[in-house]
Amino acid sequence: MDFISILSIFVLACFVGYYVVWSVTPALHTPLMSVTNAVSSVIIVGALIASVAPLPIGADPLPKWLGLVAVGLASVNIFGGFAVTARMLAMYKKKTK
């Protein structure tokens, strides 16, 4: 695929993601966070594969470093998602007297 095709897919995905996330009602926020945690875990798997793949001789090491950065950012996203989900679920628990 050429660069224009990949860029077009990325821009369309940004628009679709924006409209999907902002049209979610507050009651569905917790399930949406769970789905984003699952997506981030898939990103971590792909980033780990990218960062441990052997490089040909003379190849640029940039993909390995970008894979490492992607692992870090996706890990922060997963931790934050679980923290928000736990906090939202705690709001619906019955209070003990």
What's this, in brief?
The chain is an all-alpha fold. Helix content is 76%, strand content 0%.
What do these coordinates show?
This protein has 97 residues and is mainly α. The protein is 76% helix and 0% strand. It contains 3 helices and no strands. It has helices at residues 3-22, 29-52, 62-91. α2 packs antiparallel against α3. The longest helix has 30 residues, at 62-91. The relative contact order is 0.11. The transhydrogenation between NADH and NADP is coupled to respiration and ATP hydrolysis and functions as a proton pump across the membrane. This is proton-translocating NAD(P)(+) transhydrogenase. It catalyses: NAD(+) + NADPH + H(+)(in) = NADH + NADP(+) + H(+)(out). Its main location: membrane. It is found in: Cell inner membrane.
Which keywords apply here?
0% strand; 97 residues; mainly alpha; 3 helices
How much strand content do the residues show?
under 5%
Largest sheet: none
Low-confidence stretches: none
How would you sum up the global shape? flat
Please give the radius of gyration in angstroms.
18 Å
Instruction: Enumerate how many helices there are, as a single number.
Output: 3
Q: Work out the helicity level.
A: over 70%
Summing up helix and strand content along with how strands pair, one would put the structural category as mainly alpha
Gap from first CA to last CA: 62 Å
Helix and strand sequence: HHH
The count of β-strands is: 0
What number is the mean pLDDT? 80
